[in-house]
Amino acid sequence: MASSILSDCSSCATSRLLPLRRALHPPPPRFRPSPGPAPSPRRPLLLTAAAPLPLLPRARRMAALSAAASSADPATVLADASAKIIDGKLVAKQIREEVGVEIARMKDATGVVPGLAVILVGSRKDSQTYVRNKKKACEAVGIKSYEVNLPEDASEYEVIKHIATFNDDPSVHGILVQLPLPRHMNDENILNAVSIEKDVDGFHPVNIGRLAMQGRDPFFVPCTPKGCMELLHRSGVEINGKRAVVIGRSNIVGTPAALLLQKANATVSIVHSKTKNPEEITRQADIIIAAVGVANLVRGSWIKPGAAIIDVGINPVDDPASPRGYRLVGDVCFEEASKVAGAITPVPGGVGPMTIAMLLSNTLDSAKRIHKFK
Ligand code: GUN
Predict the structure, then answer these.
(1) Residue 304 DSSP one-character state
(2) What CATH number should be reported for the domain holding residue 85?
(3) 10 Å Cβ neighbour count for 74?
């Protein structure tokens, strides 16, 4: 019977669409997506039709992509979970330890302590939490952190003035402007102001441009996609000559992830809201990086048996059984995917912890490069 095959993911409505930024920064507990309508009795919908919630503009675009998920065939979902679980928490811990050891070695040899400056504009709770976590992680490995907090109504000029000061400060080796910025600011002007040699987020157009070019290397690679690649490498997933699909094309994750896979000699497709037949394209991939911010978009039937899956999504979905009233799920239906894939990251505990680990690694690399320390 179809209903016995339906997985937990089938109850996650496609209306629970969130922009990727929001997906990367789960909202506080007051977020309560309402449940979608019941599946049609005639057809075993794996993702239910969109509930009548007001869709955000990006969410509306993503709805086109999600619609394809409703055609997923439950028969392709195998009975037993067989995928290796890629433990991002463990890998991130190892990386933080490695970074700590290198920082101590550098300090002993040169007296230099790497420094990271973080600029936060406004008082978004999620951004404050991320900045606090970055600061704590810096302290733990021996990076000195510098913090500037500006009010929501600060001017672009003020932000750029602080960036310029950090650009000129020799004790600062990395500069990070926490995103998103208030609406009245132009991200591009601000990110352009960061010295490309201190751009530990890797968001400067020159660094992204170098990432895209053959025979050039950026000073820095954006932290989340770099973390995805590190998980693939450290899990022994071969990339050279393989087919890869990146789902999502954001500047922060999807686009740089696709460029990194291509640099590692994968044949890369990018699936996005205007892609026709995303399921069919995804099913050809040996490697999938899902970074779209749509809960459980990728179903078991989208996955080639044995594929490696890196799930960047962090989406809150209703869960009355949880004390918080919600739980976090990825862009990939873990329950189904873990029965088909060869390896998969969990959510939480997959890519999430890697982002800060990569930031620490980028800051160390910057200090080493500036001080010519090998
Ligand atoms: N907001 C969401 N992700 C990121 C990130 O990786 N870096 C910065 N600066 N802001 C973010």
Answers:
(1) -
(2) 3.40.50.720
(3) 18
Q: Rounded to 5 degrees, what are φ and ψ at 343?
A: -155, 145
Listed residue (248, 16, 28, 32) closest to 127, CA to CA: 28
Q: Are 274 and 64 in contact (CB under 8 A)?
A: yes
The reported pTM is 0.84
Same domain as 327, residue 361: no
CA–CA separation, 116 and 173 (whole Å): 6
CA nearest ligand 1 atom 8, residue: 178
Q: Which atom of ligand 1 is nearest to the CA of 24?
A: 2
Q: Is 178 a catalytic residue?
A: yes
Provide the pLDDT confidence category of residue 74 given band limits of 50, 70 and 90: very low
Using the predicted structure, report yes or no on whether residue 202 has a pLDDT greater than 50.
yes
Contact residues of ligand 1, CB 6 A cut-off: 24, 176-179, 201, 223-224, 252, 355
Which tokens go with 54? 């007001």
Asked whether residue 165 falls in the same domain as residue 57, the answer is no
Contacts of 317 (CB under 8 A, 6+ apart): 12, 16, 33, 295, 296, 326, 327, 328, 329
Among residues 201, 286, 311, 365, the one annotated as catalytic is 201
Distance separating alpha carbons of residues 268 and 275, to the nearest angstrom: 14
Using pLDDT thresholds of 50, 70 and 90, give the confidence band for residue 12: low
Query: What residue numbers bound the domain in which 39 lies?
Result: 12-89+224-354
